[in-house]
Structures are given as C-alpha cells and as structure tokens.
Amino acid sequence: MRRGLIKATSAYERFVHWLLAISCLLLCLTGLGMMFHSLNFISVIMGGMKAMKNIHNILGLVFGVSLVLAIVMWWREAGIFVLPEDWEWVKTAGGYLWHVDKVPEVGKYNPGQKMFFLTVALFGAVMFFTGIIMWFPLSFPVELVRWMYPLHALGFVIIFAFFFVHLYLGTIGSPGSLPAMLSGWVERAWLVKQHPKWLKEMEHEGKLEVYGEEKKPAADKENV
Amino acid sequence: MLQRREESKMAEKIKLYDDAKCTACRGCQLACKQWNGLKAGQTRNTGNYQNPPSLQPNTYMFIHFQDYVDEGGNVKWLFRKEACMHCTDAACVTVCPSGALYYNKEFKTVGLNREKCIGCKECMMACPFAVPCYDAATEKIYKCDMCESRISNGLDPACVKACPTGALKWGDKDAMLKTAADRVKELGGNAAIYGDKFVGGTHMMYVLKEKADVYEGIKKDPRVPFSVTLWKSWLKPLSLLAAGGVIAGSFLHYVIHGPKRPDPEDNNIPNEKAEGGK
C-alpha cells in the first residue's frame, strides 16, 4: 500500500458487492446454459443439466439475499437522484461520450452509477420473484407462470447488457476504478476526477482516511 | 419388422381418432399401459365410466366419457381420446431447455427422452393442451411419445394396434387427411376435423361427429402461448444482441473516445513523487 491512497469503500461494501456480483455472474452462466441448447455444454462442469438447474435455483437464493444487503447498504447513496446537479451530469453524459469542458462534480456515486444500481435493484427483484415462481410453477395459476418466463428473460437482457457496461467502466474504461472494489484504497487523482464532491465533503468533515496519515481530529467514525 | 420399416419410408404420419367409430372399450388405454410399462393407479368411482379421470404420469391417454343431450333432446355418449396432440409447432419443444423434448425426424411427432429431462416443468406451462405430467417421485415429465419405439420399427402405435373398431388409425398425413375428409362428408351434420387448423397441425387429429364446442375439456382455440413466442423468439436472441452491442460499443468507446484517465498531477502525495495513473 502506498502512502496517500484514500479509502473509498469498506470491507463490508466490497463483500456485499462481490457476493452479489459472483452470484449474478454464475446465474448468468448457468442460465445461459439452459437458455441455449448450443450452450448446454456449460452443464458438463456442473454435473449435468439437472444439477445445473438446481445450482441455478440455489444461487438465486444467494443472489436474493445479497441483493437485499446491497439495497439496504446503498439505497441512500446510490438510489436517490439529487436534482438539479444529477440532471446536469446526465446532460453531459458525464463527459464519457463527447468532449465536455466542465463535467458537473459528483459525490460518492454519479447518476450513471445510480442508474445501474436502480436497474440492478429493480430487475434483480424481478429476477428473484419470477425465478421463485418458475421454481414452483405448480403452486401458481398457469396463466401467471407463463408470463414469468419472458419477464425473467427481459430481466436477463437488461442485467446482462448492463453488466458489460459496468465491467468496462469499472476497469479499462475508467482506469483507477478497480481498486475501489479490490483493496478499497484509491488514488487521490482518481477521486478528483471521478468523485470530487465526495472527496471535498469527506475532507471538510474530516472523515477522509488517507493511508499513512493520522486521521483529522473530527474523524471519529469509519467512512461507511 | 425390418421389411415393414422400409415400407414406412420417410413420411410425416398422423394418428386419426374417429369418435363416431369409438365404442369406448378402452382397449387403447390398456394397450398404452402395457406397451409403456405403466402401472394402474387407484382411482375413485365418481359416477362416471371415465377412468382414470385425467392424464397422469402413468396414464398417457384415456377416453373421455360425456353424456350429451343434443338439440332434439336425445341423450348420447360422446367419447374423445385425450393424449398428446403432437403439434407441428410444439410449444413444449420450443421451451425445453435440455432438448429432452424433440421432433421425431421421420414422422414429426413429439418424442421425449426422459434421460435428458431435468424436471423444470416448463413444458407443462407451455403446452396449450395441458398434456405433460410431472412425477414428483422421479422428478421427470411423462407423456405420450406416439410409441416411438414401435413406429420407428414400422409398427402401429399400441393404441392403434389394439383398437377393434378402426376408430384409431395411423398413417401418412395426406392419406389420413383424406380419410378424415371422407368421414366428415359421410357423417354429415356438424361433423368436422379437429387438429388440422392450429399449432401448425397436430399429429393426432380427431374426426368429431358433433361441433368441437360441445366436447367437455376440449381446447377451443389452442395456440402456442404468446408468452412463449415473446420469450423464445424475441427476448432470447435479444439478450445476445444487446450484450454484443454493449461489448462492441465499449470497444469503440475505448478506441475512439478513449478511457477517462485521472490527471496524475492531482495525486498530490506528500514525500513521494506522483506516479501516473494506471
């Protein structure tokens, strides 16, 4: 660890993130293996199609639990748009798509991340509830169950597509972002560029945790 | 048997059930159980000759009994064979994730490879005729496969073989349709063919002596549920298209616009020279 790095996420945040992410990815993988006959081979390492179905169902429960933890943890920071500044940011597309002289400063989560969070929260819940009904189809009216399959597929279309956006922007599309979800310590330069408002607020409140430095007097709590 | 196989050639075949010729002897029910090695279940007398009451994991077919009072006030029996209809456009085959349900290449009937069945019950929900049955003990699906082991060897399905009145026939689709049309003409009145006008045509068709509407439990407008079409024909390919689009878009973003790099000057680390961002 280098001096001057700043703690952006807590261990709990990273744990919930990866629980959600890994269960989601494995669900995508096992789900794809059942959605396309040409991908049935994925089941070979899972012990066959039936075993893969069971793994998918149980992973769904893990996903459901981690989704609840993620929503409880993040909804205040990532689930609410702050107007008008978030709208200003959206109008510039965060400076990601075309040249923008001055991108509005954002806090811990930018509106793009908020949209991603809300999408995962909403469609994650759709996936969970449609999945449960698909798991026990005989306990529900046929007419209802029939619509659960296309809804489950719609949720997959959206989450799967968004996943690649998230993957890109969390790695090579925005260098310096990945450590936030690995060690939790990020570069100051990255924060200045990505979350300047949060950096200023934390400094102002004296809550900023900088590696190799004593915490400022006002800081008596972890930045969670 | 081998000789007969050659005779059968590669032709689409259907089973034709003629309710005006059916005496409801239920020989077909027994033959079905026997050939497929299915046990009889304990049932209760409900004041009706119909037995068993419905399709079960161990009952691939049964004869439906109905007391029918026609317009003239006459009481008649109406019989109807209930079993898998073997759709040309079979929703169960479309939704089956493991390929357990499939079209027989030779006859276009719907076969079931139970080894591959994972018990997801998606076929039960998709079937417009509510045919597939789930057995909780084996966690698998059961339904009529048109005696695939017999028809592939040039034999008639067991139910057809057992039928003493000729109410059940198995033959080339064209020939059977002609037979059915002739029978409809012969019967006159409300007689009609059931099965040729939906789900791409079924591989079990009826000649019904009365209007289809008056038969209890018959599906009046069977079709592949729209939810199945939406799911398998639209959303399924869209999932790959959307993901592919995003991956392509990300790549283009990286090479055209470039990633969003932080300015290394902002690191401002005391006692240490600032290194470039990643």
Task: Describe the protein's architecture and organization.
The complex is a heterodimer of chains A (224) and B (278). Chain A is mainly α and 224 residues long. Chain A has one domain (11-186): Fumarate Reductase Cytochrome B subunit (Up-down Bundle), CATH 1.20.950. Helix content of chain A is 59%, strand content 2%. Chain A has helices at 11-35, 49-78, 85-91, 111-135, 142-170, 188-194, 196-205, and strands at 6-7, 185-186. In chain A, strands 1-2 form a two-stranded antiparallel sheet. In chain A, helix 1 packs antiparallel against helix 2 and helix 2 packs antiparallel against helix 4. Chain A is elongated and about 60 Å long. Chain A starts with 5 loop residues before the first strand and ends in a 19-residue tail after the last helix. Chain B has 278 residues and is α+β, with helices and mostly antiparallel strands. Chain B folds into two domains: 2-223, 2-Layer Sandwich (Alpha-Beta Plaits), CATH 3.30.70; 229-267. Chain B is 30% helix and 18% strand. Chain B contains eight helices and ten strands. Chain B has helices at 2-8, 27-36, 91-95, 122-126, 148-151, 158-162, 173-187, 226-257, and strands spanning 13-18, 61-69, 75-83, 101-103, 110-112, 133-135, 140-142, 168-172, 192-194, 204-208. In chain B, strands 8-1-10-9 form a four-stranded mixed beta sheet. In chain B, a hairpin with a 4-residue loop joins strand 6 and strand 7. At the A-B interface, helix 2, helix 5 and helix 6 of A face helix 4 and helix 8 of B.
